[in-house]
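Dig into these lines:

——
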Amino acid sequence: MTRRIDDYALIGDLQTAALVGRDGSIDWLCLPRFDSAACFAALLGDEDNGHWRIAPKGATTCTSRRYAEDSLVLETYWETRTGTVKVTDFMPQRDRAPDVVRIVEGLSGRVEMSAVLRLRFDYGSIVPWVRRSEGLRVAVAGPDAVWLRSEPTVKTWGQQYATCSAFTVAAGERVAFVLTWHPSHQRRPPLVDPYEALEHSLADWRAWTAHCTYRGPYREAVVRSLITLKALTYAPTGGIVAAPTTSLPEEIGGVRNWDYRACWLRDSSLTLGALLAAGYAEEAAAWRDWLLRAVAGDPADLQIMYGPAGERRLPETSLPWLRGYADSLPVRTGNAAVDQFQLDVYGEVMDTLHRARAAGIPAERHAWNLQLSLLGFLESHWREPDEGLWEVRGPRRHFTHSKVMAWVAADRAVRTLEADPSLPGEPGRWRALRDEIHAEVCARAYDPVRNTFTQSYGSRELDAATLLIPLVGFLPPDDPRVVGTVDAVRAELTHRGFLRRYTPDSGAVDGLPGREGTFLVCSFWLADALWATGREAEARELFERLVGLTNDVGLLAEEYDPVADRQLGNFPQAFSHIGLVGTALALAGEEAAG
C-alpha cells in the first residue's frame, strides 16, 4: 500500500537527504548528491526498487517519532507487547563519504528486530553484486559501492536479492548499523564510529540552531522550517534545492510530476530574507555567492534554475521502469522548464543582491557590473511574453507577476545607486524604465470592473502571485487596487480554506491536464497580504491553520489536498517552509525577529 507523502521524515548531511517512513523504511536516498541517482527508490515504485527497513519483527507502524531537540536526528519509538525500542536515524555531516547511521536501542523488555536492506542503484533499476569483504558486506554495481556494517555484529544473510538481519535488543542494549557510499574505483573510506557521529551530529545541529534570533510565537515551527532549509542546502556551494525528491505528484494519478532537486532563482529573495531575518547571515552570504556564480555569463542565458553546484544542463527524461508514486506517471528526472524564458528571475536576482547589500553582506567587486548587464538585457526584453512564475507549458503570455518583477529589477537598481552613488550607473535611466513598466502594468493588468489585477494582460483568470504586489513594494498595501486584488484572489482561488495558484480550470494556461492541490506558499502569501492590509486577526487565523498542516515532525510538502486531507507534491518543499518562516516573522514584528 502506498504510504502518504506526509508519512515521511527527513534526514540528511547537507549534501543529500533521505526519507524515512513511519514503518521504519528508508524509501528514498540519492547518493552522493541530492540530484544523483537514487539507490532507494521505493518511494516511486515498490520495495524491489530499493529500500532499507529496520523495525520490530511483525510490526507495521511506529508508535511515535520526533526529532531530537533542535536537530535533524530522527527518533522513532516502537512499543511492542514484549518491550519498547527506539531507532535513531541520521546522516552525519560528511568528512569524505556519505553515511547513513541507524542505531537501535532497547528501552524496556526484550524486542526481536528484523532488518531488510535492498539496494537498487540508478533509481531502482540495477541490482548490485553483494559480497563479504573485510568482515563487512559490500554491494557494487558500475560506479557505485556501498558498505554495510553493524556494531556489534548481528546475524546477516542474503535472501531474494536483499541483505537481511535478525537480532534482539534488551533494555540498555544498542545495535548500530552504518551504510557508507563511495565511488567503486576508490578504496573504502575510513569507518565512522556511529556513537561518536551521533554526538557530533547533535552538537552540530544544536550549535547551528542556537544562532536563531527569532523569539516570537510558533518558534518551534519556525526553527523546524529553518532546519529543513538548512538540510536542503548543498553545503559545498551554498545552493538550496527546492526539494530532495522528484515526481511526487501534485495530483494523485496525474502527470504533474516534476523533479525539484535543483535550485530555483525564484526562491532566492524569500530565502535570503528568511535567513537574514532569523540571524543566519553566513548562510545568506553563501546563497548570495552561489547565485553570483550560477548567473554569471551572458544575461541572455540567465536560467530560472540551476544544479546544486550551478550546473546549467538539467535535461528532462522519464524513468519507465518506475510505476510512480500511487501510479502517478511519468517519473521524471531533470526539468525541461530550465529552458523557459521567465522575466521574473531578473527581478529576483536584483532583489536578492539588493537585500544582501542592505544587510551588510560585503559586496563582491564584480556583482554590480553583472547586475548592470542583466538590467541592460531586461530593458530590451521586458515587453516580451514569457512562461511566468509557474512555468506553464502552454503558450507564453504577458504575466502580471513577471512584469511586476521586471519593475522590481529596475527599482532595486535605483535604490542601490541612491544608497551608494559611487557605483557606476544611470539612475535616471532606470527610473524611467521603472516608471514605464509601472504604468503599463497598471493600465493593462488591472481590471477596473472587478477591481483586481489579473493573471496576465487582458485575461479574466486570477493568480495568487499578484498577492506579492504590495509585498515587493509595487503598490502600497492601502491602495484600493491592492485591497481589491486580495479580496478577489481570496474569493475566487480559495478551496476549502486554502489557496490555489490560479483558476483551477486553467489547462489552457498551463498546458496540462488535470488539477492540483492548494499551493501552500500561496496561502502564506495570502496571510502576508491580509496582515499588510490591516486584517491582522484573519492573517493569524490562516497562519495557524497552515502551521496545523505540518506533519507529525513539522514538515510541509508543496501542496495540500483539503478534500483528502493529505499533502501533495515534492517533500519537504523549501518554498513552503520559506513561506512559514516569512509569515511568522511578519506577524511577530521586528522585536520578536531579533
